[in-house]
Amino acid sequence: MVETACVSVTPPQPNFAPGPVLLLGAPGVGKGTQAKELMALWKVPQISTGDLLRSNVARKTELGIFAKTLMDQGKLVPDALVENMVAERLREPDTARGYILDGFPRTILQAAWLDRHLADASSVVAISIKVGYHQLLRRITGRRNCPVCQRIYNIYSHPPLVDGICDVDGARLAQRADDSESVFAERMRTYDAQTAPVLEHYRALGRFEEIDGEQPVEAVTQCVMAALARLRK
Predict the structure, then answer these.
(1) Residue 40: which CATH number?
(2) Is 14 part of any domain?
(3) Catalytic site residues?
(4) In sequence order, what are the residues at sequence separation of 6 or more whose Cβ sits closer than 8 angstroms to the Cβ of residue 23?
(5) How much is the pTM?
(6) At residue 103, does pLDDT exceed 80?
(7) How many folded domains does the chain comprise?
(8) Would 3 be classed as within a structural domain?
């Protein structure tokens, strides 16, 4: 059941140490947005595997060079390489009070790796943000961005004043190629096959809550904090 009683527990205060928190959910549910909200509140890092990959490539680390070689060949970056990047990041001192893992683990094998890697795996809690398929479809396929100022619109929920034109600089808005319905459908199939079992893994361990992600951003943040308070009791 999706958690909606967000006011039933007082949300953690800003000096709260959240520990390891996994934010899970399908593409477009708002994991990145919520991770940034919690990062600002608790002063703990958001750890995104996409960001880690780009950082390692940009810094030309040993892991980054290997990853770029694979990507240049059109190959997928293997789990072991992603896990090594995560392990390296978790050794940094800013993770001592906790961290927000955004979009990792994506597979049950990655979840098993995380359980083995952490000294206290029982400290990991997972919060899944749930949004219905059709709402996600509107969020993804409705996105338009300005190539000049990078402002993001949505033709359904946050349209520009003039159709197809940026409110700020008058540039013509663009749609990313991977924001098409066909690409989204494939991403959802991948999510259902690979990531849904991760939710069941943490649910079975009793360290899991699911919340309604179709609320306003601020309300979702309150629900995430209340869920975390319950999980940390």
Answers:
(1) 3.40.50.300
(2) no
(3) 31, 106, 143, 176, 187
(4) 31, 34, 35, 100, 101, 102, 103, 127, 129, 224
(5) 0.82
(6) no
(7) 1
(8) no
